[in-house]
Structure formats: structure tokens, C-alpha cells
Design brief:
Helix content is 31%, strand content 19%. It is α+β, with helices and mostly antiparallel strands and 399 residues long. The longest helix has 21 residues, at 180-200.
Length: 399
């Protein structure tokens, strides 16, 4: 029997994540994606023709993403026209899914080198107008924003499934009794650690400037418990979720270069980590914030390890409340220390451009594992409409 060849992570790079309407607002998503694809190749010894496939995540696709942003970005990046590209839409998990798809292609022998990642310009997401059911309608029609959340909802969907993302997480808070104070403290930690990571130089090699922006635009080093506590609830008059303890609307792109072990000579250096396990899971749509819990369990099982082996976790912080619920559950199942989660800050501070965030957490995880000499790490992300993804990495140099 032939053993499955492992897939490895060789390089990761992203743009800074810009605020909604901020420094990256003038950049089209296909241009942002092309920027990181070019940079990922420039950091290796590869020629574009050596890439077997480009797989990019994108949660929108309705505007300048141009439906297949992977192919568009590959062409704009100057890759040969012979390099194919495919786009993945698993909403917030799109670029982590792209890496999972790329790693499977390598493991099956269908590809040797795959450029993965993702992009989102939430600023430039268009309004859409549904086509009329008959010609020359007499009434008015409402434009619908494609920036975030449900749109053009099918009336057959149960109403409890289609609540807003914020209301869904207020319901999660009710179920798990997570206080406003805990959420604000978690958000403050995210800003503090993100700022420290930038100041220490951790992100210097992971981020390529774009449009004159050199650092993530949403970090608030001056945030305090008092300033976060003064913010009004965003979704319920008596709620706990605010603009301060949830991730912001963001723009940005990420790229992750994957390859086989045999590709190391062409890439020019040894891999940073091995893709050791993958997990997907689905729950009721309005319980999406909890979905990473079981996705992580599946990824750990497939890697053949347990929570006690894990030295680093990158969990995308869509909302502080859902992050806390996931971490609390993992602690009950054997995670040794909550402080191993998001040691360089998370999406509440860094930003959450939907299609790019999975590549961001995977690249940050690989870098943190090497910096801190951890052998095993886990990247996880929650996804609207009730899904979660997780990937286990192994740092084979850690012993």
C-alpha cells in the first residue's frame, strides 16, 4: 500500500487588514489578492509556472471579486495563463477551506505546489437588486447590501435560523451565561496582544504593506476596560455585544503557499509546518459560533493527538462571546491553558475580512509555533449559517 504524501505549509503573507472605508477602501479585491500572490512567490525561489493551482477563498463574489477571484488575481499577479484558479465560498471559513482543499490535492498527488489564501473588500461589496419576476414592474424595489449576513432570504427558511449574526451570538450568550465584563476583557486582551506583537516585530515578515498601510488599521492600543464598557449594545437594547467586543468590518487579503516535501528544493527552503489534521462540522445556522468546538475535535483526532499536546491555538474572534464559549468548552475537554489562544491578538483587534481570515489564522499559527517552539497547534474558525473548520499543524522542527 502506498502511503499518503504529506502536505506542508511553506510560506504565508497577508496585507494589513484595513477598516471599513479606511486605507484599503480604494483597492479592488482582485488587486489585493494579486498583491499577496505576487509576494508569496517573491519570497520563494519559484517561478509562477511551477504553481499547479491557485485556490482562493472569497465570501462575496458579487462585485469586483468577479465571481472567480482566484483566476482573476492569478492573471493580475502575472502568473502564466496556464496556471488554473478556483474560488471557494464557505463564508468566513473560505480561505481556511482553500488551504484544506489545497492540502488534499497535494496528499492525493494531484498537485505538488498550490497557492491558497483569500480576499475580501467589505467596503466595496456592492448592493444587489433582484431581477423582477415579470417585465416592466410598476413598483419600487429595494437595494440589498452584500457586505455581511443574510440577504434575499428564502421564505422557507425557519425564522430562528435567519436572525442577524449579532442576535445569534446574544442567544449564545444566553445559553452559556457569558457576561459583558468577560467579553470586554477578552476584547481588551486582543488589542493589547496585537499591539505587542506588532511592536515586537512578530508581524513584520507576515504582512506586506498595501496602499501605504503598513499595520492593521483596527488595533486600539489605548483601549481600556472603561472605554469598552461605555459602548452601547449593538443588537439588543439590553444586550452585551458591542462594536468593541465583536470583530469589525474589514478589507484585506492573505496567501498561504502549500507544497509536498519534494517541493522544498524548488521553493528554496524547508517547510514551516505539516498539515496534520483537518475537521469540518455543522450545527443549526444560528448556533454557528459554537461550530469550531467539534471541528477542532475532528481535526485533533485525525492528527492523532489530544488537547494536552496543543501548544498554540488561533481561533478567529468573530465575537468575543463565541470565542469564550469555544475556549471554555475546550478547557473542559483538556486544553491546558486559555492563554495559549491567540497569543498575538485576534480578529477583534486585527480585523476580519471574511474571505481572508482563514489564511490569516493559519499563517499566524505557523509563525507562532516556530517562534515559541511548539510542536502542535490548531487553527479554527466559525462560519455563518452554522459551520466550523479546523486545521492541526505540526512543527516538525520542535522535536
Amino acid at each position: 500500500m502506498t502511503s499518503t504524501p504529506p502536505a506542508h505549509l511553506y510560506a504565508a503573507v497577508r496585507t494589513p487588514f484595513g477598516r471599513f472605508g479606511g486605507a484599503l477602501a480604494r483597492s479592488r479585491p482582485d488587486d489585493l489578492a494579486a498583491r499577496v500572490l505576487r509576494e508569496a512567490l517573491a519570497r520563494t525561489g519559484l517561478e509562477g509556472a511551477e504553481v499547479d493551482e491557485v485556490v482562493l477563498g472569497n465570501a462575496n463574489g458579487a462585485g469586483e471579486d468577479n465571481r472567480n477571484v482566484a483566476r482573476m488575481a492569478a492573471l493580475l499577479a502575472g502568473l502564466p495563463v496556464s496556471v488554473p484558479g478556483t474560488s471557494v465560498n464557505r463564508l468566513c471559513g473560505s480561505s481556511l477551506d482553500a488551504a484544506m482543499i489545497g492540502s488534499r490535492s497535494i496528499e492525493t498527488g494531484d498537485a505538488d505546489i498550490v497557492l491558497t489564501g483569500g480576499v475580501e473588500s467589505m467596503t466595496r461589496a456592492p448592493w444587489v437588486l433582484p431581477k423582477p419576476e415579470r417585465a416592466y414592474p410598476a413598483g419600487n424595489t429595494e437595494l440589498v447590501s452584500t457586505t455581511l449576513g443574510w440577504r434575499l432570504v428564502n421564505p422557507q427558511m425557519p425564522a430562528e435560523w435567519t436572525v442577524s449574526l449579532g442576535e445569534a451570538n446574544e442567544q449564545l450568550r444566553d445559553l452559556h451565561d457569558v457576561s459583558r465584563d468577560r467579553q470586554d476583557a477578552f476584547a481588551l486582551r486582543s488589542h493589547r496582544l496585537a499591539h505587542q506583537a506588532w511592536e515586537s516585530g512578530f508581524y513584520d515578515d507576515l504582512v506586506v504593506p498595501a496602499e501605504g498601510l503598513a499595520r492593521d488599521e483596527g488595533i486600539r492600543p489605548d483601549a481600556t476596560v472603561e472605554s469598552l464598557g461605555a459602548l452601547k449594545p449593538s443588537f439588543r437594547p439590553d444586550g452585551t455585544i458591542t462594536a468593541g467586543n465583536a470583530s469589525p468590518l474589514s478589507d484585506g487579503a492573505s496567501a498561504v503557499l502549500l507544497g509536498s516535501a519534494a517541493a522544498a528544493d524548488r521553493i528554496g527552503h524547508d517547510p514551516l509546518a505539516r498539515i496534520a489534521g483537518r475537521g469540518t462540522h455543522a450545527v443549526e445556522p444560528h448556533r454557528f459560533g459554537y461550530a469550531p468546538v467539534e471541528a477542532a475535535e475532528k481535526a485533533l483526532a485525525r492528527a492523532g493527538i489530544g488537547w494536552s499536546d496543543v501548544g498554540a491555538v488561533e481561533l478567529n474572534e468573530a465575537f468575543a462571546v463565541q470565542s469564550l464559549v469555544c475556549v471554555d468548552t475546550w478547557l473542559a475537554r483538556g486544553l491546558t491553558d486559555p492563554e495559549v489562544v491567540n497569543t498575538r491578538g485576534g480578529a477583534i483587534a486585527l480585523g476580519h475580512p471574511l474571505g481572508a481570515s482563514g489564511g490569516r489564522v493559519l499563517g499566524t499559527l505557523a509563525a507562532a509555533m516556530r517562534a515559541d517552539r511548539h510542536r502542535w497547534g490548531l487553527a479554527a474558525i466559525c462560519i455563518g449559517v452554522g459551520q466550523g473548520l479546523a486545521v492541526v499543524l505540526e512543527n516538525e522542527d520542535a522535536g
